[in-house]
Amino acid sequence: MALPSHMQALTFGGRENIVLSTVPTPQVIRPDDVIVKVTCAAICGSDLHPFHGREGGIGKSCTTGHEFVGTVVALGDNVKSLRVGDRVASPFTTNCGNCFYCKSGATCRCSHEQAGGFGWVDDEQMLLPEKDRKANALQGAHAEFVRVPLGDATCMKVPDSVTDEEAILLGDILSTAFFAAENGGVGPGKAVVVVGCGPVGLLSILAVQQLGASKVWAVDSIPDRLAMAASFGAEALNFKACDVLATVRAGTEGRGADVALELVGTSQALRLGFDSIRPGGTVSSIGVNTDAAFPFSPQEAYGKQLTFKCGRCPARHFMEKLMPQLAACPAEARPPYTRVISHRMHLREGVEGYRLFNNREAIKVVLSCA
């Protein structure tokens, strides 16, 4: 199909300012590029870090967003596994599939020069034509079209039995939920504390139960999120209204939980996770924490016999595992992953979507871009 010269997109207008803009439609620049017509895109909690200025490096007028599903509409000459018309999902970072890190499952740490995160072009690079920018300076997916470098390895075909909404969750937050649980060593009989009931936290409740956890506590203070956590099978704890540590210890013969999943990205949440586990327990921290120091000392960690794991989810690696499982599961038997989507809006309503999500009036916002 002939692509339009311009398209609608949400762009970064500076701190706490998202703008609905008309921008040039992306074109194939390199022979391994794929152009995807975005069907739907989602607003992620990590989109709020540059929004609030907690993370720098995004230039004004950069298209935001990294969670998307769509249809292939153009291909570079070197793309072999995809065809125009294929429905695809993507992780939030590009990857080559061939380097040391990709082959070891750490696709989010791909060493290829084109490996990068969507929606991350700095001010200096924004001054250049797209073809002259650094190879990993990528526009985002809150748009009608998005360019995906390393298309063969990055994009994943979506089976007919998997919905767009399921696929968009797999590209980031559902994969992240399973990554958090696996990092924590969750398995049969484990007692787990989930700190933070945002979208990743809520999906983590489902993930740890699928992995066999026998008891799950979910900690937050927002009523609708706690209500959903309870409906997913967790014991919901409002940290402003109850003694979380006493409750967890009472349910574990005084020991504390085996595993804490910290999914907020604040020192307060990380400290609560640390305090809630038993000696010899594990903290799996997935929240993006921009503080300069840990909220517990090396001596405290030693005394706790702590196992601590953190980092970015290798979403493409987890998509390889989870997409076939989801496709094979009858629709009526699938976990209710898409219930975390509280608001379905159009791209042109994206500024309002950001407002709702930032104010915690929405759990998860998905934008239709068709």
From TrEMBL:
PROSITE patterns (UniProt xref): ADH_ZINC
Pfam families for this protein: ADH_N, ADH_zinc_N
Where does the Enoyl reductase (ER) domain start and stop, copy by copy?
13-367
Q: InterPro entries annotated for this entry?
A: ADH-like_C, ADH-like_N, ADH_Zn_CS, ER, GroES-like_sf, NAD(P)-bd_dom_sf
Recall the GO molecular function terms of this protein's record. Answer: oxidoreductase activity; zinc ion binding
Identify the SUPFAM superfamilies for this entry. GroES-like, NAD(P)-binding Rossmann-fold domains
Q: Name any cofactors this protein relies on.
A: Zn(2+)
- SMART domains, A to Z: PKS_ER (SM00829)
| Protein origin, superkingdom | Eukaryota
Keyword tags: Metal-binding, Oxidoreductase, Zinc
Q: Is-annotated flag, keyword Zinc? A: yes
Q: Which Gene3D superfamilies does the record associate with it?
A: Medium-chain alcohol dehydrogenases, catalytic domain (3.90.180.10), NAD(P)-binding Rossmann-like Domain (3.40.50.720)
Q: Into which family does the record put it?
A: Belongs to the zinc-containing alcohol dehydrogenase family.
Give the protein's recorded name: Enoyl reductase (ER) domain-containing protein
